[in-house]
Design a protein that fits this description.
Layout lengths: L5 E6 L3 H12 L4 E7 L2 H11 L3 E4 L8 H11 L4 E6 L4 H10 L3 E4 L4 H12 L4 E2 L1 H12 L5 H6 L5 H11 L4 H8 L3 H15 L4 H10 L6
Parallel strand pairs: 1-2, 1-3, 3-4, 4-5, 5-6
Helix pairs in contact: 2-3, 3-4, 8-10, 8-11, 9-10
């Protein structure tokens, strides 16, 4: 960083949000938004040209998504810090971003102060995750792993879907599952729908029967 000013590239495919956040961050002392980009491919070109200190990256974008763009940016420019700022809160997206090399992960509901703290921390070489995400990461690593037997029985399900199916089999409602796993109700609903489709079951009751037959839902 030159003169302690953080040079920032902002990547998001929604122009109103992108330009609004750009204006907000540009008005902050110590932050210089040197460029913006509307998709992953454009981000690669802009980052190569501008060599910023930090990239604030959305995930779901056309042409090249934020995870792939992050992986490419970090592999070529390991000195550049990437902060993922997205609506996606599912575990697969969070850990994919971490594996790709992101050093920060925030949800788009984060306030200006939280975003700025993340940008400054990542610029100085630290890793930062929003409070909700940090709690979920801690829960993920603290929880006992899903048994290999269950993974073999339902190989078509993701680890998160198996976890939700286990709670379904234990008789938990969607709101209870959301509270237990620190997920939004919408994320739980989407995962439950995916479970039904992958197991080819018609409803919740049939899914519970399949899960209990496989040994799920027990303490």
């Amino acid at each position: 960083m030159s003169d302690d000013v953080i040079r920032l590239v902002l990547v998001d495919d929604h122009p109103v949000y992108r330009e609004g956040l750009s204006a907000l961050l540009s008005s902050t002392d110590g932050v210089d938004v040197v460029a913006t980009a509307g998709d992953g491919n454009e981000a690669l070109d802009v980052v190569a040209a501008q060599q910023p200190d930090v990239v604030v990256m959305d995930v779901q974008m056309p042409r090249l998504d934020g995870i792939a763009a992050t992986r490419e940016i970090v592999s070529v420019n390991p000195h550049i810090g990437v902060v993922v700022l997205t609506m996606s809160e599912d575990d697969e997206t969070v850990f994919s971003a971490m594996r790709a090399g992101a050093r920060g992960y925030l949800l788009k509901g984060a306030g200006q102060d939280e975003i700025l703290r993340a940008i400054r921390s990542v610029a100085s070489g630290e890793a930062v995750f929003g409070a909700a995400i940090a709690r979920r990461v801690a829960e993920y690593f603290a929880a006992p792993p899903t048994s290999q037997k269950v993974a073999e029985i339902f190989p078509q399900l993701t680890a998160r879907e198996r976890e939700i199916l286990d709670l379904l089999a234990a008789g938990r409602s969607n709101p209870q599952i959301a509270q237990t796993l620190y997920l939004s109700p919408k994320t739980v609903r989407n995962n439950v729908s995916n479970i039904f489709a992958k197991l080819q079951v018609a409803d919740r009751a049939e899914a519970i029967i399949r899960a209990r037959d496989a040994g799920l839902g027990h303490p």
